[in-house]
Amino acid sequence: MASKFIDKLLEETYDRARKSHINKKARENIDKAGLHYIEITKADIESIISYNYVAIRMSKSVSTERKRLVASGAEGVTRGEAAQNVIESNSPTATRVRQEASEISEIIFNQFVDTYNKKVSEVEYQAKFTGNIITILQPRNHAIKAKETILEGLTSNAGDTLFKNIIKGRERKSFTRRTQFLHIGKTVGVQILNDLKSNLTLKPDTAAKKAALDVIMQMLDNVELGWSIDDSYSNRDIHVVGKLGQTLINKPGSDSNDWTNLRPELERRLADELNNRRIDLGSGQSSQPFDERAAKHLINEQLLKPLKKKGVKVTPFKVDKPKKRSNTLKKGPVSKTPRAGGIAAIGRKKVVQNRKTQKRSDTGASDMLKLVVMFNQKLPDAIVNNMGSPALENRTGRFANSVRVTDITKTPQGFPSVGYTYQKSPYQTFESGYQQGSPEYDPRNLINKSIREVAAEFAIGRFYTRRV
Length: 468
Known about the structure:
By secondary structure, this protein is of the alpha+beta class. The chain is 52% helix and 11% strand. It has a 5-stranded mixed beta sheet with strand order 2-3-1-7-4. The protein is globular, with a radius of gyration of 26 Å. 32% of the residues are buried.
Protein backbone atom coordinates (compact mmCIF):
# COMPACT_ATOMS: atom_id res chain seq x y z
CA MET A 1 0.00 0.00 0.00
CA ALA A 2 2.88 2.37 0.74
CA SER A 3 4.17 1.69 -2.76
CA LYS A 4 0.88 2.77 -4.36
CA PHE A 5 0.77 5.89 -2.22
CA ILE A 6 4.29 6.86 -3.33
CA ASP A 7 3.31 6.21 -6.96
CA LYS A 8 0.48 8.74 -6.54
CA LEU A 9 2.88 11.29 -5.05
CA LEU A 10 5.24 10.81 -8.00
CA GLU A 11 2.37 11.22 -10.47
CA GLU A 12 1.42 14.52 -8.87
CA THR A 13 5.01 15.75 -8.61
CA TYR A 14 6.00 14.93 -12.19
CA ASP A 15 2.66 15.69 -13.82
CA ARG A 16 1.75 12.03 -14.42
CA ALA A 17 5.02 11.30 -16.21
CA ARG A 18 5.73 7.67 -17.02
CA LYS A 19 8.06 5.90 -14.60
CA SER A 20 10.75 5.79 -17.27
CA HIS A 21 10.62 9.61 -17.53
CA ILE A 22 10.81 10.41 -13.81
CA ASN A 23 14.59 9.91 -13.62
CA LYS A 24 15.02 12.09 -16.70
CA LYS A 25 12.94 14.90 -15.20
CA ALA A 26 14.79 14.64 -11.88
CA ARG A 27 18.14 14.82 -13.70
CA GLU A 28 16.97 17.96 -15.51
CA ASN A 29 16.08 19.49 -12.15
CA ILE A 30 19.56 18.67 -10.81
CA ASP A 31 21.12 20.41 -13.80
CA LYS A 32 19.23 23.57 -12.91
CA ALA A 33 20.05 23.37 -9.19
CA GLY A 34 23.25 25.41 -9.17
CA LEU A 35 27.01 24.95 -9.00
CA HIS A 36 28.40 21.59 -10.13
CA TYR A 37 31.81 20.29 -9.11
CA ILE A 38 33.46 17.72 -11.40
CA GLU A 39 36.59 15.66 -10.83
CA ILE A 40 38.42 13.89 -13.68
CA THR A 41 41.39 11.56 -13.37
CA LYS A 42 43.59 9.96 -15.99
CA ALA A 43 42.02 6.61 -15.07
CA ASP A 44 38.54 8.09 -15.72
CA ILE A 45 39.53 9.09 -19.27
CA GLU A 46 41.15 5.70 -19.92
CA SER A 47 38.02 3.92 -18.67
CA ILE A 48 35.73 6.09 -20.82
CA ILE A 49 37.77 5.41 -23.97
CA SER A 50 38.18 1.66 -23.50
CA TYR A 51 34.61 0.96 -22.35
CA ASN A 52 33.16 3.06 -25.17
CA TYR A 53 35.21 1.14 -27.73
CA VAL A 54 34.08 -2.20 -26.32
CA ALA A 55 30.45 -1.07 -26.12
CA ILE A 56 30.42 0.29 -29.67
CA ARG A 57 32.72 -2.11 -31.51
CA MET A 58 32.66 -5.32 -29.44
CA SER A 59 29.05 -5.55 -28.29
CA LYS A 60 28.74 -9.15 -29.51
CA SER A 61 31.77 -10.16 -27.44
CA VAL A 62 30.19 -8.51 -24.39
CA SER A 63 26.91 -10.39 -24.91
CA THR A 64 28.76 -13.68 -25.37
CA GLU A 65 30.81 -13.13 -22.20
CA ARG A 66 27.69 -12.25 -20.23
CA LYS A 67 25.98 -15.46 -21.36
CA ARG A 68 29.08 -17.44 -20.41
CA LEU A 69 29.13 -15.96 -16.91
CA VAL A 70 25.42 -16.67 -16.41
CA ALA A 71 25.87 -20.24 -17.67
CA SER A 72 28.71 -20.73 -15.17
CA GLY A 73 26.32 -19.94 -12.32
CA ALA A 74 27.04 -16.24 -11.76
CA GLU A 75 24.02 -14.21 -10.68
CA GLY A 76 23.06 -10.63 -11.51
CA VAL A 77 25.79 -10.22 -14.12
CA THR A 78 25.66 -6.77 -15.74
CA ARG A 79 26.88 -5.79 -19.19
CA GLY A 80 29.45 -3.61 -17.45
CA GLU A 81 30.93 -6.61 -15.65
CA ALA A 82 30.96 -8.61 -18.87
CA ALA A 83 32.61 -5.67 -20.69
CA GLN A 84 35.30 -5.49 -18.02
CA ASN A 85 36.09 -9.18 -18.57
CA VAL A 86 36.36 -8.55 -22.30
CA ILE A 87 38.70 -5.59 -21.75
CA GLU A 88 40.91 -7.54 -19.35
CA SER A 89 41.04 -10.70 -21.45
CA ASN A 90 44.21 -11.85 -23.19
CA SER A 91 42.79 -11.53 -26.70
CA PRO A 92 44.94 -9.50 -29.16
CA THR A 93 42.23 -6.85 -29.54
CA ALA A 94 41.71 -6.42 -25.78
CA THR A 95 45.45 -6.17 -25.21
CA ARG A 96 45.69 -3.49 -27.86
CA VAL A 97 42.69 -1.61 -26.42
CA ARG A 98 44.31 -1.49 -22.97
CA GLN A 99 47.69 -0.37 -24.27
CA GLU A 100 46.44 2.30 -26.67
CA ALA A 101 43.82 3.61 -24.20
CA SER A 102 46.53 4.06 -21.58
CA GLU A 103 48.80 5.98 -23.96
CA ILE A 104 46.10 8.24 -25.39
CA SER A 105 44.46 8.98 -22.04
CA GLU A 106 47.82 10.20 -20.71
CA ILE A 107 48.04 12.73 -23.56
CA ILE A 108 44.39 13.83 -23.22
CA PHE A 109 44.73 14.23 -19.45
CA ASN A 110 47.82 16.43 -19.77
CA GLN A 111 46.19 18.61 -22.45
CA PHE A 112 42.72 18.70 -20.90
CA VAL A 113 42.95 21.90 -18.80
CA ASP A 114 44.26 24.07 -21.65
CA THR A 115 41.75 22.66 -24.16
CA TYR A 116 38.77 22.92 -21.81
CA ASN A 117 39.55 26.44 -20.63
CA LYS A 118 39.38 27.74 -24.21
CA LYS A 119 35.66 26.85 -24.11
CA VAL A 120 34.97 28.72 -20.86
CA SER A 121 35.04 32.52 -20.78
CA GLU A 122 34.57 32.94 -16.99
CA VAL A 123 37.93 32.56 -15.24
CA GLU A 124 36.31 31.37 -12.01
CA TYR A 125 34.76 28.39 -13.81
CA GLN A 126 37.85 27.16 -15.62
CA ALA A 127 39.42 23.74 -15.04
CA LYS A 128 42.58 23.35 -12.98
CA PHE A 129 44.89 20.63 -11.70
CA THR A 130 44.47 19.80 -8.02
CA GLY A 131 47.28 17.34 -7.46
CA ASN A 132 46.76 14.56 -9.98
CA ILE A 133 43.05 15.34 -10.38
CA ILE A 134 41.42 17.83 -12.75
CA THR A 135 38.74 19.84 -10.96
CA ILE A 136 36.03 21.88 -12.66
CA LEU A 137 33.46 24.20 -11.13
CA GLN A 138 30.44 25.02 -13.30
CA PRO A 139 27.46 27.34 -12.83
CA ARG A 140 25.30 24.35 -13.79
CA ASN A 141 25.87 20.94 -15.32
CA HIS A 142 27.79 21.63 -18.52
CA ALA A 143 29.44 18.21 -18.60
CA ILE A 144 29.05 18.30 -22.39
CA LYS A 145 32.08 20.64 -22.53
CA ALA A 146 34.17 18.13 -20.62
CA LYS A 147 32.96 15.32 -22.89
CA GLU A 148 33.79 17.40 -25.96
CA THR A 149 37.29 18.02 -24.60
CA ILE A 150 37.94 14.30 -24.20
CA LEU A 151 36.54 13.54 -27.66
CA GLU A 152 38.60 16.30 -29.26
CA GLY A 153 41.71 14.93 -27.61
CA LEU A 154 40.87 11.44 -28.84
CA THR A 155 40.30 12.75 -32.36
CA SER A 156 43.63 14.60 -32.40
CA ASN A 157 45.63 11.66 -31.09
CA ALA A 158 43.84 8.60 -32.49
CA GLY A 159 46.31 8.20 -35.35
CA ASP A 160 46.40 4.55 -36.42
CA THR A 161 45.02 3.26 -33.13
CA LEU A 162 41.82 1.23 -32.82
CA PHE A 163 40.02 4.37 -31.64
CA LYS A 164 40.16 6.02 -35.05
CA ASN A 165 37.06 3.91 -35.77
CA ILE A 166 34.84 5.55 -33.15
CA ILE A 167 35.43 9.25 -33.79
CA LYS A 168 33.25 9.62 -36.88
CA GLY A 169 29.56 9.72 -37.74
CA ARG A 170 27.16 7.62 -35.69
CA GLU A 171 29.88 6.10 -33.57
CA ARG A 172 31.07 9.55 -32.51
CA LYS A 173 27.52 10.39 -31.40
CA SER A 174 27.32 7.07 -29.57
CA PHE A 175 30.59 7.89 -27.78
CA THR A 176 29.13 11.19 -26.54
CA ARG A 177 25.81 9.62 -25.54
CA ARG A 178 27.50 6.82 -23.60
CA THR A 179 29.70 9.25 -21.65
CA GLN A 180 27.79 10.86 -18.80
CA PHE A 181 28.06 12.81 -15.59
CA LEU A 182 28.01 10.42 -12.62
CA HIS A 183 26.64 11.99 -9.44
CA ILE A 184 28.38 11.55 -6.11
CA GLY A 185 26.36 12.19 -2.96
CA LYS A 186 23.43 14.03 -4.54
CA THR A 187 22.11 11.46 -6.98
CA VAL A 188 18.95 11.46 -9.05
CA GLY A 189 17.38 9.61 -6.10
CA VAL A 190 18.14 12.49 -3.75
CA GLN A 191 16.70 14.92 -6.29
CA ILE A 192 13.48 12.88 -6.48
CA LEU A 193 13.17 13.18 -2.71
CA ASN A 194 13.74 16.94 -3.06
CA ASP A 195 11.09 17.23 -5.77
CA LEU A 196 8.61 15.25 -3.67
CA LYS A 197 9.34 17.53 -0.71
CA SER A 198 8.76 20.67 -2.79
CA ASN A 199 5.45 19.39 -4.12
CA LEU A 200 4.22 18.20 -0.72
CA THR A 201 5.17 21.56 0.83
CA LEU A 202 2.88 23.27 -1.68
CA LYS A 203 -0.04 20.89 -1.07
CA PRO A 204 0.01 19.27 2.39
CA ASP A 205 -3.76 18.84 2.13
CA THR A 206 -4.13 15.47 3.86
CA ALA A 207 -2.81 13.89 7.01
CA ALA A 208 -1.08 11.22 4.93
CA LYS A 209 0.77 13.83 2.86
CA LYS A 210 1.87 15.67 5.99
CA ALA A 211 3.25 12.41 7.35
CA ALA A 212 5.03 11.75 4.03
CA LEU A 213 6.56 15.24 4.11
CA ASP A 214 7.95 14.60 7.60
CA VAL A 215 9.50 11.30 6.50
CA ILE A 216 11.08 12.83 3.38
CA MET A 217 12.51 15.74 5.39
CA GLN A 218 14.12 13.24 7.79
CA MET A 219 15.61 11.25 4.93
CA LEU A 220 17.00 14.37 3.26
CA ASP A 221 18.64 15.35 6.54
CA ASN A 222 20.50 12.04 6.35
CA VAL A 223 21.58 12.08 2.71
CA GLU A 224 21.96 15.71 1.59
CA LEU A 225 25.13 17.68 2.00
CA GLY A 226 26.13 21.30 1.90
CA TRP A 227 29.26 21.52 -0.22
CA SER A 228 31.89 24.26 -0.24
CA ILE A 229 35.20 24.74 -1.99
CA ASP A 230 38.02 27.05 -1.01
CA ASP A 231 39.44 29.16 -3.80
CA SER A 232 40.43 32.71 -4.63
CA TYR A 233 36.83 33.64 -5.41
CA SER A 234 35.63 32.99 -1.81
CA ASN A 235 33.69 30.02 -0.51
CA ARG A 236 30.98 28.98 -2.92
CA ASP A 237 28.17 26.52 -2.25
CA ILE A 238 28.36 23.40 -4.40
CA HIS A 239 25.03 21.71 -5.08
CA VAL A 240 26.22 18.68 -7.03
CA VAL A 241 29.46 16.70 -7.04
CA GLY A 242 30.39 14.10 -9.64
CA LYS A 243 32.72 12.75 -12.30
CA LEU A 244 32.58 11.59 -15.90
CA GLY A 245 32.06 7.92 -16.64
CA GLN A 246 30.79 5.44 -19.19
CA THR A 247 27.19 4.21 -19.01
CA LEU A 248 28.22 0.53 -18.77
CA ILE A 249 29.90 1.11 -15.42
CA ASN A 250 27.12 3.30 -14.03
CA LYS A 251 25.12 0.41 -12.62
CA PRO A 252 21.75 1.51 -11.15
CA GLY A 253 21.74 1.01 -7.42
CA SER A 254 25.52 1.11 -7.03
CA ASP A 255 25.22 4.28 -4.95
CA SER A 256 23.44 4.07 -1.60
CA ASN A 257 21.56 7.25 -2.57
CA ASP A 258 20.26 5.86 -5.88
CA TRP A 259 16.47 5.87 -6.15
CA THR A 260 16.44 2.05 -6.32
CA ASN A 261 17.87 2.09 -2.79
CA LEU A 262 16.08 5.15 -1.42
CA ARG A 263 12.57 4.16 -2.51
CA PRO A 264 12.34 0.94 -0.41
CA GLU A 265 13.60 2.92 2.59
CA LEU A 266 10.98 5.61 1.91
CA GLU A 267 8.25 2.96 1.73
CA ARG A 268 9.35 1.41 5.02
CA ARG A 269 9.59 4.68 6.89
CA LEU A 270 6.32 5.97 5.47
CA ALA A 271 4.47 2.80 6.46
CA ASP A 272 5.85 3.15 10.01
CA GLU A 273 4.89 6.83 10.21
CA LEU A 274 1.36 6.30 8.93
CA ASN A 275 1.01 3.34 11.23
CA ASN A 276 2.10 5.39 14.27
CA ARG A 277 -0.30 8.21 13.44
CA ARG A 278 -3.18 5.81 12.70
CA ILE A 279 -3.42 7.15 9.15
CA ASP A 280 -4.59 4.88 6.34
CA LEU A 281 -2.16 4.72 3.39
CA GLY A 282 -4.91 5.60 0.95
CA SER A 283 -5.60 8.83 2.84
CA GLY A 284 -8.86 7.27 3.95
CA GLN A 285 -10.05 5.29 6.95
CA SER A 286 -11.71 2.01 7.81
CA SER A 287 -13.53 0.53 10.77
CA GLN A 288 -10.18 -0.90 11.91
CA PRO A 289 -7.04 1.19 12.32
CA PHE A 290 -4.22 0.43 9.89
CA ASP A 291 -1.99 -1.16 12.54
CA GLU A 292 -4.72 -3.52 13.71
CA ARG A 293 -5.63 -4.55 10.17
CA ALA A 294 -1.95 -5.14 9.41
CA ALA A 295 -1.49 -7.19 12.56
CA LYS A 296 -4.55 -9.36 11.91
CA HIS A 297 -3.58 -9.88 8.28
CA LEU A 298 -0.10 -10.93 9.39
CA ILE A 299 -1.50 -13.38 11.96
CA ASN A 300 -3.84 -14.88 9.34
CA GLU A 301 -1.08 -15.33 6.76
CA GLN A 302 1.94 -16.20 8.90
CA LEU A 303 0.43 -18.09 11.84
CA LEU A 304 -3.07 -19.41 11.21
CA LYS A 305 -2.81 -20.32 7.53
CA PRO A 306 0.15 -22.75 8.04
CA LEU A 307 -1.71 -24.38 10.97
CA LYS A 308 -4.79 -24.84 8.80
CA LYS A 309 -2.69 -26.61 6.17
CA LYS A 310 -1.57 -29.05 8.86
CA GLY A 311 -5.19 -29.89 9.68
CA VAL A 312 -5.58 -27.69 12.75
CA LYS A 313 -9.04 -26.11 12.97
CA VAL A 314 -8.60 -22.33 13.17
CA THR A 315 -10.83 -19.28 12.75
CA PRO A 316 -9.03 -16.44 10.96
CA PHE A 317 -9.45 -12.82 11.95
CA LYS A 318 -11.78 -10.69 9.87
CA VAL A 319 -9.85 -7.86 8.23
CA ASP A 320 -11.99 -4.87 7.17
CA LYS A 321 -11.37 -3.25 3.81
CA PRO A 322 -10.69 0.52 3.76
CA LYS A 323 -13.77 2.65 3.26
CA LYS A 324 -14.07 5.81 1.19
CA ARG A 325 -11.50 8.56 1.59
CA SER A 326 -11.48 10.63 4.71
CA ASN A 327 -8.77 12.84 6.14
CA THR A 328 -9.68 12.33 9.80
CA LEU A 329 -7.06 10.97 12.14
CA LYS A 330 -7.70 7.85 14.20
CA LYS A 331 -7.47 8.33 17.94
CA GLY A 332 -6.30 4.80 18.70
CA PRO A 333 -6.78 1.13 17.89
CA VAL A 334 -10.21 -0.45 18.10
CA SER A 335 -10.18 -3.30 20.59
CA LYS A 336 -11.20 -6.65 19.13
CA THR A 337 -11.44 -9.93 21.01
CA PRO A 338 -9.28 -12.65 19.41
CA ARG A 339 -11.37 -15.44 17.94
CA ALA A 340 -8.64 -17.99 17.48
CA GLY A 341 -7.76 -18.82 21.08
CA GLY A 342 -4.40 -18.61 22.74
CA ILE A 343 -2.41 -19.10 19.54
CA ALA A 344 -3.89 -16.02 17.91
CA ALA A 345 -3.49 -14.00 21.10
CA ILE A 346 0.20 -14.87 21.38
CA GLY A 347 0.73 -14.16 17.70
CA ARG A 348 -0.96 -10.79 18.00
CA LYS A 349 1.17 -9.80 20.96
CA LYS A 350 4.31 -10.64 19.02
CA VAL A 351 3.23 -8.57 16.03
CA VAL A 352 2.49 -5.57 18.23
CA GLN A 353 5.90 -5.83 19.85
CA ASN A 354 7.65 -5.99 16.49
CA ARG A 355 5.77 -2.94 15.29
CA LYS A 356 7.77 -0.51 17.41
CA THR A 357 9.43 2.10 15.25
CA GLN A 358 13.20 2.35 15.47
CA LYS A 359 14.27 5.98 15.28
CA ARG A 360 17.53 6.78 13.55
CA SER A 361 19.79 9.39 15.04
CA ASP A 362 20.71 12.17 12.65
CA THR A 363 23.55 13.39 14.86
CA GLY A 364 26.73 13.70 12.85
CA ALA A 365 25.09 12.38 9.66
CA SER A 366 26.30 15.29 7.56
CA ASP A 367 29.86 14.88 8.84
CA MET A 368 29.78 11.16 8.08
CA LEU A 369 28.60 11.79 4.53
CA LYS A 370 31.30 14.38 3.98
CA LEU A 371 33.85 11.81 5.15
CA VAL A 372 32.46 9.33 2.59
CA VAL A 373 33.16 11.78 -0.22
CA MET A 374 36.60 12.65 1.14
CA PHE A 375 37.49 8.96 1.34
CA ASN A 376 36.35 8.38 -2.24
CA GLN A 377 38.44 11.28 -3.49
CA LYS A 378 41.65 9.86 -2.01
CA LEU A 379 41.13 6.09 -2.10
CA PRO A 380 41.98 5.41 -5.79
CA ASP A 381 45.44 6.94 -5.47
CA ALA A 382 46.09 5.23 -2.14
CA ILE A 383 45.14 1.85 -3.60
CA VAL A 384 47.30 2.33 -6.70
CA ASN A 385 50.25 3.21 -4.47
CA ASN A 386 49.74 0.04 -2.43
CA MET A 387 49.33 -2.27 -5.43
CA GLY A 388 52.16 -4.46 -6.64
CA SER A 389 53.66 -7.87 -5.93
CA PRO A 390 52.81 -9.83 -3.87
CA ALA A 391 49.40 -8.06 -3.86
CA LEU A 392 47.21 -7.26 -6.89
CA GLU A 393 49.08 -5.31 -9.56
CA ASN A 394 47.86 -2.13 -11.20
CA ARG A 395 47.33 -2.56 -14.94
CA THR A 396 44.32 -0.56 -16.06
CA GLY A 397 43.35 1.35 -12.90
CA ARG A 398 39.86 -0.15 -13.05
CA PHE A 399 40.13 -2.00 -9.76
CA ALA A 400 41.40 1.06 -7.89
CA ASN A 401 38.63 3.24 -9.35
CA SER A 402 35.95 0.66 -8.57
CA VAL A 403 36.67 0.80 -4.83
CA ARG A 404 34.42 3.21 -3.02
CA VAL A 405 33.24 3.85 0.50
CA THR A 406 29.44 3.49 0.59
CA ASP A 407 28.66 4.60 4.14
CA ILE A 408 30.13 5.29 7.56
CA THR A 409 28.11 4.29 10.61
CA LYS A 410 28.85 3.94 14.30
CA THR A 411 29.27 0.69 16.21
CA PRO A 412 27.42 0.21 19.53
CA GLN A 413 30.70 1.20 21.19
CA GLY A 414 30.75 4.49 19.25
CA PHE A 415 33.57 3.70 16.79
CA PRO A 416 33.24 4.50 13.06
CA SER A 417 32.46 1.54 10.82
CA VAL A 418 33.47 2.15 7.19
CA GLY A 419 31.51 0.19 4.59
CA TYR A 420 33.10 -0.24 1.18
CA THR A 421 32.56 -2.08 -2.07
CA TYR A 422 34.52 -2.87 -5.20
CA GLN A 423 33.83 -4.44 -8.60
CA LYS A 424 33.53 -8.07 -7.60
CA SER A 425 33.74 -9.45 -11.12
CA PRO A 426 36.47 -10.55 -11.64
CA TYR A 427 38.38 -9.47 -8.51
CA GLN A 428 36.37 -11.32 -5.85
CA THR A 429 37.91 -14.58 -7.04
CA PHE A 430 41.06 -13.55 -5.11
CA GLU A 431 39.24 -13.30 -1.78
CA SER A 432 40.13 -16.08 0.65
CA GLY A 433 37.63 -18.89 0.20
CA TYR A 434 37.05 -18.21 -3.51
CA GLN A 435 38.57 -20.07 -6.46
CA GLN A 436 41.86 -18.15 -6.63
CA GLY A 437 41.78 -16.88 -3.06
CA SER A 438 44.97 -16.15 -1.17
CA PRO A 439 45.96 -13.81 1.69
CA GLU A 440 48.43 -12.02 -0.59
CA TYR A 441 45.96 -11.28 -3.39
CA ASP A 442 42.84 -10.78 -1.26
CA PRO A 443 41.44 -7.38 -2.38
CA ARG A 444 40.09 -6.73 1.11
CA ASN A 445 43.56 -6.60 2.63
CA LEU A 446 44.67 -4.08 0.01
CA ILE A 447 41.55 -1.96 0.51
CA ASN A 448 41.74 -2.07 4.31
CA LYS A 449 45.36 -0.92 4.23
CA SER A 450 44.49 1.96 1.88
CA ILE A 451 41.46 3.04 3.90
CA ARG A 452 43.57 3.16 7.05
CA GLU A 453 46.19 5.30 5.34
CA VAL A 454 43.53 7.76 4.20
CA ALA A 455 41.92 7.70 7.65
CA ALA A 456 45.26 8.65 9.18
CA GLU A 457 45.23 11.84 7.06
CA PHE A 458 41.83 12.72 8.55
CA ALA A 459 43.11 11.98 12.08
CA ILE A 460 40.51 9.24 12.56
CA GLY A 461 41.39 7.03 15.51
CA ARG A 462 40.07 3.54 16.05
CA PHE A 463 37.58 2.32 13.44
CA TYR A 464 36.39 -0.79 11.61
CA THR A 465 35.99 -1.66 7.95
CA ARG A 466 33.45 -3.97 6.28
CA ARG A 467 32.83 -5.04 2.72
CA VAL A 468 29.21 -4.55 1.66
